[in-house]
Amino acid sequence: MTISLNINGETHEVEADPGTPLLWVIRDELRMTGTKFGCGVASCGACTVHLDGQPARSCQTYVGDLEGTEITTIEAMRENEIGAAVQQAWMELDVVQCGYCQSGQIMSAVGLLSENPKPSAEEIDNYMYGNACRCATYQRIRAGIQRASEILEA
Fold first, then answer.
1. What is the DSSP code (8-state) at residue 71?
2. Mind listing the pLDDT tens digit for each residue in 67-117?
């Protein structure tokens, strides 16, 4: 079945079963490999994308449900003011260790800062709770989000 998807501001026509997870269309069909597969059950956050500006787990989001939805992946975050601030903060503070989870972490951080531009440490921890980091860089991730908030405020 041909499904039309709006990803990063571009229309993509893909041949896929409506029950195909968005993650596999993004990675395998469209070759946007920034979004990662982590667990497949929406528990780790590595596959986080934005659907109409809200973070969502692409491993459990089906392409048949997405026509008319604006999908944003990590590849478009440089063009987003909040995304650029988060990426700048990540580099300044050397947040990344192995990096595997970081696209999902960044996508969630952008979602948080879009809703709450000045979150407390507790609010950051609560919002980011569903994003797992095997390297346990949670303190650096929190500091990165706080730094991104400062960058945006300047």
1. E
2. 999 999 999 999 999 999 999 999 999 999 999 999 999 999 999 999 999
The angle that helices 138-153 and 121-128 make with each other, rounded to 10 degrees, is 120
| Identity of residue 88 | Q
131 Cβ contact partners less than 8 Å away, ≥ 6 residues apart: 44, 45, 46, 48, 101, 104, 105, 108, 141
Domain locations along the chain: 2-73, 80-153
Check: CATH 3.30.70.360 for 80-153?
Answer: no
Supply the angle between the helices 121-128 and 102-115 in degrees, to the nearest 10: 130
Look at domain 2-73 and name its CATH class: alpha beta
Contact indicator for 26, 94 with CB cutoff of 8 Å: no
